[in-house]
Amino acid sequence: MTTEDYTTESNNTLRNNGPEIDPNDPNKSIESAWDRHRFDIKMVNPANKRKYKIIVVGTGLAGASAAATLGELGYNVLNFCFQDSPRRAHSIAAQGGINAAKNYQNDGDSVYRLFYDTVKGGDFRSRESNVYRLAQVSVNIIDQAVAQGVPFGREYGGLLANRSFGGALVSRTFYAKGQTGQQLLLGAYQAHSRMVDAGKIVMKTRTEMLDLVLIDGEAKGIIVRNLVTGEIESYAADCVVLATGGYSNVFFLSTNAMGCNVTSTWRASRRGALFANPCYTQIHPTCIPQAGDYQSKLTLMSESLRNDGRVWVPKTKELAEQVRSGAIKPRDIKEEDRDYYLERIYPTFGNLVPRDVASRAAKRMCDDGKGVAQTERGYGVFLDFKDAIERDGEDAVRSRYGNLFEMYERITDDNPYETPMRIYPAPHYTMGGLWVDYNLMSNVPGLFVIGEANFSDHGANRLGASALMQGLADGYFILPYTIGHYLAQVPKAGFSDVKRPEFTKTKEEAIERLEKLLNVNGTKSCDVFHRDLGYLMLDKVGMGRDKEGLEFMLKRVREIREDFWENVSVPGTADGLNPSLEKANRVADFLEFAEVMVYDALTRSESCGGHFREESQTEEGEAKRDDEQFCHVAAWEYRGPGQEPIRHTEELTFDYVKPSQRSYK
Amino acid sequence: MRFLQSTIGLKILMAFTGIILVGFVLVHMLGNLQIFIPFQGISGEAAIDKYGYLLKSNAVVLWGARSVLLGAIVGHIFAAVKLTNRSNAARPRKYELHRWFSDSYAVRTMRWGGVLVLLFVIYHLLHFTVGVDAALFTEVKHCGPLEGGAANTCFVRENVIRGFQQPLISGFYMIAQVALGLHLTHGVWSLFRTLGFTSQQWSERSRILAMSIGGLITLGNIAIPLSILMGIIK
Amino acid sequence: MSGTLNFTLKVWRQNGTKDSGYFEEYEAKDISEHMSFLEMMDIVNEKLEAENKEPIVFEHDCREGICGSCGFMINGQPHGHKSRTTTCQLHMREFKYMDGGTIVLEPFSAKPFKVLKDLMIDRSAFDRVIQSGGYVSIRTGSAPDAHSIAVEKDSADKAFDAATCIGCGACVASCPNASAMLFTGAKVTHLGLIPQGQTERYSRVQEMVNQMDSEDFGHCSNFGECTLACPKGISLDVISQMNKDLLVSQFKG
Question: DSSP secondary structure string, A21-41?
Fold first, then answer.
């Protein structure tokens, strides 16, 4: 069989409804595109805004900032989250920082440079116009956050400090120690709280979206489950905004929170929204390796560790084996028996190669049997600070990484000052998501998707400190304007009729599904299926893929799904708090969603970003992009259970940043 | 916002009344320590007796001071009772097991220590101020003319010695002083916190101050019954 | 098995706010010392689920000590005996000393923290305290350039320390008075120490204290249990700062 056997390429290529861009025409240049677009789109009369109702699902950086800003503009916002408080969304766990083209360091940064870096970093698989706009509004985000009281790191003169991040040539990353995500989220949460107090946001916590309701093909409401009472409720509005984050938990173990899930976006996809580039996931190189089967999540450590740590594995399998069994200690391995493989393969960038390159190299070493984690498979490599400590002294290293070392020791009981850290890549961020146009609206009218939940700005690989920037750009500065274009065309504001048959029917389907889950009465906890699926997905649809493995996965995912619906055990009832049911409902969706990921990975037979396709490599074994065939976004249309989805494409044109093969040698 | 009804308002009330009471306790102790001053001259009048009489001689000053103190006590207790009730209501389900992180004894005895101090104060007033015989288990000698002399005086020294020669009374006084000292070691520190002295410097200063005041009051006041029991003061 | 630990878990089970609740004992066997406390709970629960019994309900999400979801009383202390740790970051190696013993698990107890089920409680009171004034009123888009006001590094650092609160509720749980002063004080201090928060500084403290009181939290006795229980080690100074601000607010129009 060939790749073409799996997919039907649709003739309809997607249009993103963005402004016309012409690099040679200053009036239509990318620099002025966002301004022109804001002028061109329709607007809602300020006095009429209070007549509209907007549903926002999710309260992370994107959701909270959007809800707050929409509330400030006068709209009535109905906001949902499954956690007990909007402040707990997983944006809170982001450590490193947020990029902005402020050029406060006077080192030559500019909007254009941030734009350029982001397009290149995404391996030429993102939309230029979106990325340019992102770089433009990045500066406003910092102003906004500072005014909210976000305590960014400062210099002694009282001005904001910056660090360089992910090998960028300029220092443009703003940070609040290792808790930038927390501080930015709390800033957005406070702005959000202010609007709750003002009555412009009605906040529903502990409420999980189960389905999207379409009326005449437009998104007009959602069905949710009140996680405390178990009640299935319907909510109607003039449009729906999804800010529900990424789907890394499809890999079971990831740096995501336990509750992160694909349910909202997948349910929307089942209702017709296209899922774009689902196979683009980011595997972050510096995480603490898995220690045992019981493990529930992976912990990320800031990438900054690679500034001073040296990555290595033992030169031979035999030595690695002895390290794994504990027969020899890492520090006892002689210098000549160590392979500092990043420095060896990439002499120019060394340990500072981009995330995707570092991750892939670690996997290759471990696949060759040189892994050093003290587990059966041994998946882990060393990150050694010995030289840094000898060169700069322990105190200097402590002042730079003290909190990270402390965190590492707390989790592993190993002291990184005395023995090298063990690290291994872990699923972290998902660049794929629901397809959106320049207005951040999906192909379903009235359904907007923001933050990690959409596919837009990062292409095939996300650069460090870009996710916080994108979430807040969408929520504070883009969606609040572009949403008006749709709302202005809504015939009558204030839709609230949940008695419509569309609501009743969708609600019934949701209830039916939950009952089905409860009535399987099997003997296996749903974690068993999730773990099975996740390990296989990481192995076959993670950093390295080949056709054979992907074809195997197409079958295997279906088998696990069938097994799940026959043998899962979901105790308790639907009429109250039941975390087992919540979990099973999410896992059921991962089991469906995984299939479209596999289709996407299978069809995209090129290597790009962190996605290494064995069949597409250079003679030196490096990733080889195929711009002839794959310089496009792939967006998948769901066609029904067990049926092959339809692949739509949006061509990507690069008028400003010309695609080149990335080289870090 | 009704300031005095807020939890913080009540705490600030406790802090201010606390300051008055601590001041009083300190001065009171200094007065008491005059018992160690030997008899003066030929008249045979004890310094503490003279001092006692002096305090009582001006009714306006006396009752003025007493009402300030009474007000402080009432305020202090009012706030304490209100906050205690609130605290009890704030945790309807008690823990099966509740372990403390800190091992400070003083903080955990604030409430019952405070009650003990209050009981002591009542007894103490009956004993020496009002002079109820039953409280002393023996006769209290009230202020009056000096034996064979024209001047009036108070027989503080005699009453104190007679009282403290009874081990039961001395014992109670000494226990109460320990309770008072503990109450102050936390209370004085706490009042600085409540009044917003936030800096690290103030935190240390106020802790030293609290320890010193608590210790001083306990030692100073215990010295009296102890000396009497040991026969140093006769 | 060598290198593993065994415990009896004495767990508070309560089916809903109105239920009276009771303790039930579960066996946790062959627990690796590298597991986190919640991973041990996962194992107990996975077994219960396979037997089609209702698992022990506890709140958790990020499992890296930052979201503030997790937390219950472990042997009488919120997040257990190890200082500056959330329950999800507490590892079983800390319990080696009591191998074979009984670990008591109870939900945080305070009047505003109603038990929803087992070890899961309702902390929405915290949200309402923030909603009452824990913000700077700045409309999106109206912010001046971030460098228009320099902030002294010392106060910026102090503000940051106060801002690291994760809202887990351990302070309330450990406080003998079930007071929320450390939580409220942290936000009052964070915003009160930086120039951006000055305009609303004194109205903010009044509104927030008012809301905190009306949620029926207890008062502060400066015992300091909260700061010792706090996974982020928020200083008791934030309470003192709040007291001061409230006192000063009485003299400002």
Answer: --TT-GGGSHHHHHHHHHHHS
Cβ distance A68 to A437 under 8 Å?
A: no
User: Does residue B171 sit within a domain?
Assistant: yes
Domain edges within chain C: 4-106, 124-249
- The verdict on C64 touching A (C-beta cutoff 8 Å) is yes
To probe the interface with A, which of C59, C61, C69, C234 has the most A CB atoms within 10 Å?
Answer: C61
- C and B touch with 3+ CB pairs <8 Å, answer yes
Report the chain C residue with the minimal C-alpha distance to residue B89: C111
Residue A302 maps to which CATH number? 3.90.700.10
Domain span at residue B135 reads 3-36+43-90+104-229
| Structural domain includes residue B210 | yes
The answer to whether residue A61 is domain-embedded is: yes
Spatial separation of the C-alpha atoms in residues B231 and A583, rounded to whole Å: 79
Number of separate domains in chain A: 2
Asked if C223's CB is within 8 angstroms of B102's CB, the reply is: yes
How far from B83 is each of A164, A663, B18, B73, B87, CA to CA, in Å? Answer: 52, 68, 15, 15, 6
Do A334 and A438 have their domain in common?
no
**Would you say residue A267 lies in a domain?**
yes
* B-C contacts at Cβ under 8 angstroms: 145
Q: What span, in angstroms and rounded, lies between the C-alpha atoms of A62 and A80?
A: 13
pLDDT tens readout for residues A167-183: 678 999 999 988 999 99
Res A332 pLDDT > 50: yes
How many angstroms separate the CA of residue B81 from the nearest CA in chain C? 12
> Residue A2 has what pLDDT?
46
Domain CATH number, residue B209: 1.20.1300
Q: Which residue of C has its CA nearest to A105?
A: C147
* A149·C196 Cβ contact <8 A: yes
pLDDT digits (tens, 9 = 90+) for C186-227: 999 999 999 999 999 999 999 999 999 999 999 999 999 999
CB contact under 8 A, C76 and B91: no
Work out the minimum CA distance from C62 to partner chain A, whole angstroms: 4
Cβ-Cβ contacts under 8 Å, C53 against chain A:
571
Please check whether residue B19 touches C, CB under 8 A: no
Q: A225 forms bridges with which residues in the sheet?
A: A208, A232
pLDDT confidence of residue C70: 97
pTM (predicted TM-score): 0.96
Say whether domain C4-106 belongs to CATH 3.10.20.30.
yes
Q: Determine the pLDDT at residue C133.
A: 98
Same domain, A68 and A217: yes
Which residue range is the domain that position A307 belongs to? 285-427
Backbone angles phi, psi at C12, to 5 degrees: -75, 120
Copy the structure tokens of residue A6: 């799996």
Does B touch A (3+ CB pairs < 8 Å)? no
Asked if residue B99 belongs to a domain, the reply is no
Nearest Cα to Cα of residue A364 among A376, A356, A354, A375:
A356
Task: Give the distance from residue A307's alpha carbon to the nearest chain C alpha carbon, in angstroms.
Answer: 23
The residue among A599, A622, A616 whose CA lies nearest residue A277 is: A599
- Domain finish residue from A419, A452, A487: A487
**Contact predicate A605/A7, CB 8 Å:** no
User: Nearest Cβ partner of A580 from C36, C49, C91?
Assistant: C49
Q: Which residues on chain A are in Cβ contact (under 8 Å) with C43?
A: 294
Say if residue A256 is in the same domain as residue A341: no
C124-249: what fold? Answer: Fumarate Reductase Iron-sulfur Protein; Chain B, domain 2 (1.10.1060)
Whole-complex ipTM: 0.98
In a domain, A213, yes or no: yes
Tokens of A661: 């093969």
| Residue-level pLDDT at A6 | 57
Q: In terms of pLDDT, which residue wins out, C41 or B162? A: C41
B97 vs C contacts (CB less than 8 Å): 73, 75-76, 104, 106
Please check whether residue B30 lies inside any domain of the structure.
Answer: yes
CB-closest option in C48, C123, C190 to A149: C190
Residue A5 lies in a domain: no
pLDDT of residue A116 exceeding 60, the answer is yes
